[in-house]
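Hi V.,

Quick status before I head out on leave. The structure for the redesign project is tokenized and pasted below; the design run finished overnight.
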């Protein structure tokens, strides 16, 4: 069997293994949503349902982190980071050695945590289907807030791994056509085997946050009863918008980040298809809607104005009119007071572009 045939077969195995791996994560994500038999929409059933959905999301997270550690035998403290059983599964020669989580894996776990939070206004139920005591509801609300924190921590981990991946990709090529040249360039069988071993490992999978990554975390905050939840959701929306504006200023000829949100490099490297430059993910309608929902669920007396401010940002387009020097910048609140060309919106009001009159 030629080196090319072995590579193609190994690639098919890895693809199938990744599909199965992500399917397993998806199963735990669905379990977090249903409460392992509880009510639809993450309600679960009473405190037992709360424990069930939390445990399902935790299992998805543990499976993700175990695979993310891969072949790293030691943590920062120098002690073994994986159990002996896990390290045995990653030993040379096993298929699992070549499998690492991808963007879909991380997004699935983010979704698991987002689904594990009870929908606002949905009371937890006991095993008999009755409304649980107030104490149980409070405990469930605390779980929902913790779920939002865990979802955002997964997003931050994606960002850290993205930096590492981009640093390594500067010295790597993503062209499979170079395999034959590498193999043929070594006359020694020893070096051929060693190089083949490296080539059988997949090219560093680009793990980078997509619009779905951000949307999942924002949706988790929208479900959280935490008083600061709307601000946390808005901060993520602002983070997406600011990253995209910065990228467009530094890469004026680059392609826009797709609605799916996969950008190349640290917002400027090669895309998965090898063409052009792509930016970070742009906010989608789901991003805005979830942020507005977070304000809708808030008891803050100014939440309605903030929600309208986010809606106005969506109508004006955060990203389409932000390259002009006279355009304003976003503020930390939903009102984003000087957004758009020659005008902006205040809390509770919208001024039309071009300096037109606004509503009082």
């Amino acid at each position: 069997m030629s080196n090319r045939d072995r590579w193609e077969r190994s690639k098919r195995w890895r693809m199938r293994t990744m599909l199965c791996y992500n399917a397993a994560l998806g199963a735990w994500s669905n379990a977090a949503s249903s409460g392992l038999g509880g009510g639809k929409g993450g309600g679960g059933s009473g405190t037992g349902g709360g424990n069930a959905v939390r445990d399902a999301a935790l299992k998805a997270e543990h499976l993700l982190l175990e695979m993310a550690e891969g072949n790293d035998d030691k943590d920062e403290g120098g002690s073994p980071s994986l159990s002996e059983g896990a390290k045995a599964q990653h030993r040379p020669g096993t298929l699992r050695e070549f499998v690492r989580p991808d963007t879909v894996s991380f997004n699935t776990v983010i979704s698991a945590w987002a689904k594990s939070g009870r929908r606002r206004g949905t009371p937890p139920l006991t095993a008999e289907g009755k409304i649980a005591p107030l104490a149980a509801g409070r405990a469930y609300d605390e779980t929902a807030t913790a779920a939002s924190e865990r979802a955002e921590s997964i997003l931050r981990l994606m960002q850290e791994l993205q930096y590492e991946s981009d640093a390594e990709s500067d010295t790597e090529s993503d062209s499979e056509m170079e395999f034959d040249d590498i193999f043929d360039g070594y006359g020694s069988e020893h070096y051929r085997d060693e190089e083949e071993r490296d080539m059988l490992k997949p090219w560093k999978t680009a793990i980078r946050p997509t619009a779905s990554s951000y949307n999942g975390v924002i949706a988790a905050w929208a479900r959280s009863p935490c008083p600061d939840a709307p601000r946390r959701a808005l901060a993520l929306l602002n983070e997406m918008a600011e990253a995209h504006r910065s990228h467009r200023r530094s890469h004026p000829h680059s392609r826009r980040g797709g609605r799916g949100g996969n950008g190349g490099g640290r917002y400027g490297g090669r895309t998965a298809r090898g063409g052009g430059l792509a930016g970070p993910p742009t906010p989608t309608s789901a991003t805005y809607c979830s942020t507005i929902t977070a304000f809708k669920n808030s008891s803050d007396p100014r939440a309605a104005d903030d929600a309208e401010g986010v809606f106005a940002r969506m109508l004006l387009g955060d990203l389409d009119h932000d390259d002009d020097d006279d355009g304003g910048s976003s503020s930390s609140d939903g009102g984003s007071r000087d957004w758009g060309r020659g005008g902006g919106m205040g809390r509770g009001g919208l001024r039309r572009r071009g300096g037109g009159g606004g509503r009082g």
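Above is the designed sequence. The chain has eleven helices and no strands.

G. will cover questions while I'm gone.

Best,
W.
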